[in-house]
């Protein structure tokens, strides 16, 4: 049995509330949508480009509201930008979100007004450049904590979040387009769901006992919901969604809901991992027994 | 480790002070909780209610935003000395505190620069900067930092509709008292010198002598915790002499600063971001219908 102090956690659970997993979703959606929009423009699919631009801008408008609302002192949100600090993924992420969000919203407004085309293009380019980091840095953000199920998954998390972002961007665009215009978006959604499923399996296998929180409590429920919704939605998009607009809308919505659940699963897993001292103590004790404890100095 | 060194005491230049810290020798702790009380009094920490936890004499529970010194009580059926053959009850008491790590994860991840390294080498939250993002809370390998959910001390803008303090609080190693030439409140109040304050180098020497003495006297399980600069956090500014494994006291047995892995995590993320971009472009190239 793992020793502990009256079964009390060693770590503190995060203080974050519902806004944070929702932001992980909207941040991923806007990041990948920026790239999808730019790519569609390059390949001459104007309708897909415009749809992805608006989706990205909308998600980018919601993201800072969610983040600020989660702060203990929302009126001090701008303190995030008083420094630039590479040792803080949250600080780096704030800058990335500022640039991506500013650019995508500028581009969307100019598109809507139909003016200043060169500036709009520049804004779209900047948004596309900062989109992939926006979609993946949140994986680093949670992995750079002492929470075992997050920190030990540092290799997989940015990839999982990236795949999830791709799936949601493709799925969201498919919802608002005629199926004949949405081919690349559907393929992106399906590929994202497949990649993310494989990556989640890899992560859980590699985590071993620490990963068992994904099969317990709320994390398990969200994990299953993510698999069912994203899997079902992707299947629908790959089949009837190629012809029927209704099926595409339903499939896209299911994939988006699945991706939201995936972020919730990862989020909840962190809380569960922090709550049980076993996940903190046992791996450290085993490492100390194997390699000699670095923290304890025994009498000579 | 180069990115981590930016948080070092050397950044203070001419104002740099000798690194100060605590050596908490639990072998002489009598569990009086004078440290807890002195800390709360000096630092004007609000009362956070009273609960009876039925954990020996511990009704405080754990370190947090309203508890910057916490005395742990453990009742064990173990002999106090390794070789005396007795099977009695021994009572372990330990006054826990923020470790003021050499490589402090909380300080590294703080996005506002609110957490900083003082000229004494300690780690302090600037309350006029902290915006309550809470990132330091899960980053700390010891679970020291916590957001304060008590009412805010001053009126907040009405549109927030959020009357809680909302900032993160922890031990400052009495930064204000140090500035005034005093020792921290907890060590000043400690009647048995279980909590010793001083230059870290001196404390380490004293701790080594104490450990040798306890070994000579045959104490069971005596060990120094976080004394060694080569451990996962680069050694602590506040280290301990324990009489059992760290986890018995609710301390992690082999903590590491997770930001040590950050350089490779950034590279990994950049790779994932690049693959994501290529993947999105690829969805236009392959599988055309």
In short:
The complex is a heterodimer of chains A (300) and B (289). Chain A is an all-alpha fold and 300 residues long. Chain A has 10 helices and 1 strand; from the N terminus they run ααααααααααβ.
What key phrases describe this protein's structure?
heterodimer; A: 300 residues; mainly alpha; Formate dehydrogenase/DMSO reductase fold; 10 helices; 72% helix; globular; B: 289 residues; alpha+beta; Alpha-Beta Plaits; 2 domains; 4-stranded mixed beta sheet; two-stranded antiparallel ribbon; 7 helices; 10 strands; 16% strand; disordered N terminus
Please provide a written account of the structure.
The complex is a heterodimer of chains A (300) and B (289). With 300 residues, chain A is an all-alpha fold. Chain A has helices at 19-42, 46-70, 89-113, 117-143, 148-151, 157-175, 183-207, 217-238, 245-275, 277-291, and one strand spanning 296-297. Chain A has one domain (19-280): Formate dehydrogenase/DMSO reductase fold. Chain A is globular. The model of chain A has no long low-confidence stretch (mean pLDDT 95). By secondary structure, chain B is an alpha+beta fold. Helix content of chain B is 24%, strand content 16%. Chain B has helices at 34-42, 105-109, 136-139, 175-179, 185-189, 200-216, 262-285; strands at 20-25, 69-77, 89-97, 115-117, 123-125, 146-147, 168-169, 195-199, 223-225, 238-242. In chain B, the strands form four sheets. Chain B has a four-stranded mixed sheet. Chain B has a two-stranded antiparallel sheet with strand order 2-3. In chain B, a hairpin with a 5-residue loop joins strand 4 and strand 5 (123-125). At the A-B interface, helix 1, helix 3, helix 4, helix 6 and helix 7 of A face helix 2, helix 3, strand 6, helix 6 and strand 9 of B.
């Amino acid at each position: 049995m793992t020793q502990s102090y009256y079964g009390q956690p060693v770590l503190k659970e995060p203080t974050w509330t519902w806004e944070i997993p929702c932001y992980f979703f909207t941040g991923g959606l806007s990041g990948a949508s920026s790239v999808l929009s730019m790519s569609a423009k390059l390949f001459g699919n104007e309708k897909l480009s415009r749809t992805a631009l608006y989706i990205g801008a909308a998600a980018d408008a919601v993201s800072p509201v969610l983040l600020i609302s989660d702060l203990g002192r929302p009126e001090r949100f701008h303190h995030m930008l008083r420094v630039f600090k590479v040792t803080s993924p949250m600080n780096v992420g704030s800058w990335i979100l500022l640039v991506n969000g500013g650019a995508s919203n500028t581009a969307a407004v100019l598109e809507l007004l139909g003016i200043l085309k060169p500036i709009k293009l520049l804004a779209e380019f900047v948004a596309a450049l900062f989109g992939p980091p926006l979609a993946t840095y949140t994986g680093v953000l949670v992995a750079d904590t002492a929470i075992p199920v997050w920190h030990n998954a540092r290799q997989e998390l940015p990839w999982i979040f990236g795949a999830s972002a791709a799936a949601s961007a493709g799925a969201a665009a498919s919802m608002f387009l005629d199926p004949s215009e949405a081919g690349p978006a559907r393929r992106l959604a399906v590929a994202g769901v497949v990649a993310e499923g494989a990556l989640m399996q890899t992560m859980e296998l590699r985590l071993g006992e620490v990963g068992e929180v994904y099969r317990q409590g709320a994390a398990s429920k969200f994990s299953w919901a993510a698999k069912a919704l994203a899997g079902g939605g992707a299947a629908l998009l790959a089949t009837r969604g190629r012809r029927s607009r209704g099926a595409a809308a339903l499939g896209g919505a299911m994939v988006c809901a699945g991706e939201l659940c995936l972020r919730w699963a990862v989020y909840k897993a962190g809380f569960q991992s922090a709550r049980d001292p076993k996940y903190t103590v046992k791996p450290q004790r085993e490492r100390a027994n194997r390699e000699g404890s670095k923290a304890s100095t025994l009498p000579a | 480790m180069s990115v981590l060194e930016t948080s070092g005491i050397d950044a203070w230049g001419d104002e740099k002070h000798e690194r100060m810290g605590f050596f908490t020798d639990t072998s002489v702790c009598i569990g009086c909780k004078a440290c807890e009380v002195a800390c709360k009094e000096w630092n004007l920490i609000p009362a956070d209610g009273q609960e009876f936890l039925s954990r020996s004499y511990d009704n405080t529970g754990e370190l947090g935003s309203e508890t910057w010194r916490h005395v742990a009580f453990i009742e064990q059926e173990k002999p106090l000395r390794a070789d005396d053959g007795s099977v009695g009850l021994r009572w372990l008491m330990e006054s826990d505190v923020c470790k003021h790590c050499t490589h402090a994860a909380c300080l590294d991840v703080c996005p506002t620069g609110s957490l900083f390294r003082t000229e004494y080498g300690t780690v302090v939250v600037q309350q006029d900067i902290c915006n309550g993002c809470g990132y330091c809370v899960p980053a700390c390998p010891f679970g020291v930092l916590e957001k304060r959910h008590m009412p805010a001390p001053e009126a907040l803008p009405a549109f927030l509709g959020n009357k809680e303090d909302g900032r993160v609080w922890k031990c400052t190693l009495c930064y204000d008292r140090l500035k005034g030439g005093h020792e921290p409140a907890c060590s000043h109040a400690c009647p048995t010198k279980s909590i010793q304050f001083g230059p870290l180098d001196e404390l380490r020497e004293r701790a080594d002598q104490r450990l040798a003495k306890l070994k000579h006297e045959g104490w069971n399980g005596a060990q120094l915790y976080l004394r060694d600069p080569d451990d996962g956090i680069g050694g602590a500014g506040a280290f301990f002499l324990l009489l059992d494994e760290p986890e018995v006291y609710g301390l992690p047995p082999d903590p590491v600063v997770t930001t040590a892995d950050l350089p490779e995590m950034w590279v990994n993320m950049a790779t994932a971001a690049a693959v994501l971009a290529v993947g999105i472009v690829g969805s236009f190239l392959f599988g055309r219908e």
